[in-house]
Design goal:
alpha+beta, outer membrane lipoprotein receptor (LolB), chain A
Length: 232
C-alpha cells in the first residue's frame, strides 16, 4: 500500500517544489508491539521523484518520471535498471489508494472532519501545531509546521497520477486545508474490530534544487524490462 507520508509537499505555482526528506514509518497492530520501522528517503521535484528505503543510503531505488512516462527500479549491486511498465505501476497505485480509501472510510467528500489538538510538539526541529482528522474508520493526528514554504499541493501531479486524489477525496481535502507542511502523522484505523496504527515522522527535510542525475539511470547500468512477477 502506498503510504502517503507522508510527506506531502509548492514553492510557487510557476515552478515545482524541489524537496528532500527522510521519514521513518512504524506500524503496530493490536496485541503486537511496534516493529523497528522503515526509513524512507525521497527526492521530489514535481513530475520527477526518487525513493529509497532502508537505513543505508545508496541502496535500491525507484525512479518515477511522470514527465517522460517512465519508471525504473535500480539495483546498485548488479548495476541493473529494471524498466517498469508505467501503466501497470499506475494501476497498482490506483488500486492501493482505492483500498486505503475504502478501509479508512474517507473517500467521500465531507466524510472527514478536522479539529485542533490542545497541544503541539516539536518535530525535526520545527514547532508544529496539531490537528485531529476523523473519518468513519480512522483517526489521524497530524502535526504541521508553517515554517517551511511548502503545502500539500506541491504533490498535486503525483497525487493525481497515483489515484489518491480520487480515492482519498474526503481525507485528502481535510489534509489540504491544514495550515502548513505535515511533519508527523499518527493514524489509527479500525477494520472489523482490529486496530492498526501507523506513525510516520519526518526526521529531516531540505528545500532546494536537486542534482538532475538523481532522476536518471546511472551511467554504466544495464537496462532490462522488469517481469510482471517482479512488479508485485
Amino acid at each position: 500500500m502506498i503510504i502517503l507520508p507522508l510527506a506531502l509537499l509548492v514553492l510557487a505555482p510557476a515552478r515545482p517544489a524541489e524537496v528532500y526528506f527522510e521519514q521513518r514509518t512504524v506500524v503496530s497492530e493490536e496485541g503486537r508491539g511496534p516493529g523497528p520501522g522503515v526509513l524512507s528517503r525521497v527526492w521530489f521535484a514535481g513530475s520527477r521523484m526518487r525513493m529509497e528505503a532502508g537505513d543505508t543510503p545508496g541502496g535500491p531505488a525507484l525512479l518515477l518520471r511522470l514527465d517522460r512516462g517512465q519508471a525504473f527500479r535500480l539495483d546498485p549491486e548488479r548495476k541493473l535498471a529494471f524498466e517498469i511498465d508505467p501503466a501497470r505501476l499506475r494501476a497498482r497505485a490506483h488500486l492501493d489508494a482505492s483500498v486505503a480509501g475504502d478501509l479508512m472510510g474517507g473517500s467521500e467528500e465531507g466524510s472527514a472532519r478536522t479539529s485542533p489538538l490542545p497541544a503541539g510538539k516539536t518535530v525535526a526541529g520545527y514547532a508544529c501545531r496539531g490537528f485531529r482528522i476523523r473519518a468513519p474508520s480512522l483517526v489521524m493526528d497530524v502535526f504541521v509546521t508553517d515554517a517551511l514554504p511548502l503545502t500539500v499541493d506541491a504533490f498535486a501531479d503525483f497525487l493525481e497520477w497515483s489515484g489518491a486524489s480520487q480515492s482519498l477525496g474526503g481525507l485528502l481535502h481535510e489534509i489540504r486545508r491544514l495550515p502548513g507542511f505535515p511533519l508527523e502523522t499518527h493514524t489509527r484505523v479500525t477494520v472489523m474490530g482490529q486496530v492498526r496504527e501507523t506513525v510516520s515522522t519526518v526526521t529531516k527535510v531540505k528545500v532546494g534544487p536537486h542534482a538532475p542525475l538523481l532522476f536518471e539511470v546511472p551511467s554504466g547500468y544495464r537496462i532490462e524490462k522488469e517481469a510482471e512477477s517482479q512488479e508485485e
